[in-house]
Amino acid sequence: MIDCGEGTQLQMRYSRQGFARLGHIFISHLHGDHCFGLIGLISTLGMLGRGHAATLHIHAFPELETLLRPQIDFFCKDMEYEVEFHPFAPDTSEVIYEDRSLTVTTIPLCHRVPSSGFLFREKPSARHIRREMIDFYHIPVSQINCIKNGADFELSDGSIVPNDWLTTDPSPSRSYAYCCDTAPRTEIIPLIEGVDVLYHDATFQADDLVRAKKTFHSTSVGAATIAAQAGVKRLILGHFSARYDDEKKLLEEARSIFPATELATEGLSIQI
Fold first, then answer.
1. Helices (DSSP H) in 149-268: which residue ranges?
2. Residue 18 pLDDT
């Protein structure tokens, strides 16, 4: 989960997301609309019977543990599971999470308080072995993983079958970048270059540029410009100001610069 504002539990129930599957929460910055839902969610997970083995990991700036730990100790004394905080620095880009399938890297942003985006990048998968080649060369099961990882195959007479005869290219790795609550920042372009989907702050329309600069937010045009310069495949605009009854103008402004733009809406599901 990225960020945890008030109403998070209602949204999880509305979108039928299972509470038990939640293992890691990434907090972008310490404004209430991004973290006020944490203590309630932590308490609910305890009441739902989350067990000892299911530690909840929270990745955030160090100050969050200072603020939240006393609340956990007071309101959640009898929880069976642990809440573990993983602090990271707001001004550096670093890998803060890694497992066998993906990495999560921080993206330093520009806001009124320290703020970070997150880049989720799938690790390269193994090559696809061709079934007919397994049968033709009588490749033993013990050799299949080596071949998927790029090895050639040696026949009994010592001759070599090259890997590109035996396999096809792996599926492309997928990537998603989340950059909310930030003024446009060209320094992030090398970090998000070519990502499949970029979610970017677009709080204001282009004619509210002065206010956007004052509050360290982005306009639709600013977000689209970053997307175009980074060569991303799709842009999702979000974090709209409540002053707009209709966000279509933001979409039109962004599409004039970066056509592959969509608006974030409640319940939107995106296939990456």
1. 163-166, 189-192, 209-215, 220-230, 248-255
2. 85
CB atoms within 10 A of CB 80: 12
Among this protein's residues, is 33 annotated catalytic? yes
For residue range 210-251, what is the model confidence (pLDDT) as tens digits?
A: 999 999 999 999 999 999 999 999 999 999 999 999 999 999
Both tokens of residue 150?
A: 């790029």
Dihedral sign (CA 198, 203, 209, 211): negative
pLDDT at 98: 97
The pair phi, psi for residue 191, each rounded to 5°, is -75, -35
* pLDDT, mean of residues 154-181: 93
Condensed to tens digits (0 to 9), the pLDDT of residues 39-98 reads: 999 999 999 999 888 999 999 999 999 999 999 999 998 899 999 999 999 899 999 999
Q: What is the Cα–Cα distance from 206 to 184, expressed in whole angstroms? A: 13
Residue-level pLDDT at 97: 98
- Active-site residue (options: 33, 73, 99, 201): 33
* Rounded (5°) CA angle 203-250-214: 30
Q: Are strands 128-129 and 167-168 parallel, antiparallel or unpaired?
A: antiparallel
